[in-house]
Amino acid sequence: MLPVAGTIEVNDIHKRYGDTRAVDGVTFEVQAGEFFGILGPNGAGKTTTLEIIEGLREPDSGTVSVFGTSPWPRNKGLLTRMGVQLQASSFFERLTAREQIRMFASLYGVAAGRADEMLDTVGLTDKADSRTEKLSGGQMQRLSIACALVHDPELVFLDEPTAALDPQARRNLWDLLRKINDAGRTVVLTTHYMDEAEALCDRVAIMDRGQVLELGPPATLVRGLEAPTRISVESGALPMADAQAIQPSATVEDDGVSLTFATTEPGPVLAALADRDALHGLSVKAATLEDVFLNLTGREYRA
């Protein structure tokens, strides 16, 4: 596959449903070979944005270009170059995993042998003859991704692929997603799991209420937050007065379990604690992408 610069270009797209502005002026680009994340709380407009890029929905205004051409009206020339794993996938009842993949392969004129290879790619070889209703949630997601990849697309869309999976299944699926990207494919992922985006994505767009609030590499967004580092040791490791004297600009709290420093200059605090042999139970927590997310979108729960 030859790399294509500017694989996706989204320019000021809008989409309304009645009084609801699902997408309200979204603009970004995705480069060839990039692992790009679209993050946001429920109802942020992530899935609608993805569906517009995929050519499943028409924007009310604005433009989208995928490989230099518009995906809407439904562009058949793009179908073989894109793979789509939807937020919820439905498979034919009573078919085995092998039969499901072979059915998807036949839609693209792909040989059955290629379909069988995909079982190994996604780690489902031992489940080839299992009917899909017998698969676990993680196995179903792997099968869904295999069906999206069976025609060897250059660009892959993954809409919350690890939603509702247990932690082990999520981490296991992350390894597969890395392999998909390492093979040279461009990957666009929507998720509301910040640790997932931080672990996988080269860049992320944080969305809320139909708009992109921030865009950039996760590490850059975290650094821009300038949030304090929290350093915790066992409660009572130092008298409160001594702890406060280490760095007067730091915030110090002792809740009876941990003595915690909140500081933008963690180095001197750690050195002072080491000099005083007060590192028992040490925990250092820097800002994360979740802190950026909450700072931008707020902390209230939205169903």
TrEMBL record:
<dbReference type="GO" id="GO:0005524">
    <property type="term" value="F:ATP binding"/>
</dbReference>
<feature type="domain" description="ABC transporter">
    <location>
        <begin position="8"/>
        <end position="234"/>
    </location>
</feature>
<dbReference type="InterPro" id="IPR017871">
    <property type="entry name" value="ABC_transporter-like_CS"/>
</dbReference>
<protein>
    <submittedName>
        <fullName>ABC transporter ATP-binding protein</fullName>
    </submittedName>
</protein>
<keyword id="KW-0067">ATP-binding</keyword>
<comment type="similarity">
    <text>Belongs to the ABC transporter superfamily.</text>
</comment>
<dbReference type="InterPro" id="IPR050763">
    <property type="entry name" value="ABC_transporter_ATP-binding"/>
</dbReference>
<dbReference type="InterPro" id="IPR003593">
    <property type="entry name" value="AAA+_ATPase"/>
</dbReference>
<keyword id="KW-1003">Cell membrane</keyword>
<dbReference type="Pfam" id="PF00005">
    <property type="entry name" value="ABC_tran"/>
</dbReference>
<keyword id="KW-0547">Nucleotide-binding</keyword>
<dbReference type="GO" id="GO:0005886">
    <property type="term" value="C:plasma membrane"/>
</dbReference>
<keyword id="KW-0046">Antibiotic resistance</keyword>
<dbReference type="GO" id="GO:0016887">
    <property type="term" value="F:ATP hydrolysis activity"/>
</dbReference>
<dbReference type="InterPro" id="IPR027417">
    <property type="entry name" value="P-loop_NTPase"/>
</dbReference>
<keyword id="KW-0472">Membrane</keyword>
<dbReference type="InterPro" id="IPR003439">
    <property type="entry name" value="ABC_transporter-like_ATP-bd"/>
</dbReference>
<keyword id="KW-1278">Translocase</keyword>
<dbReference type="GO" id="GO:0046677">
    <property type="term" value="P:response to antibiotic"/>
</dbReference>
<keyword id="KW-0813">Transport</keyword>
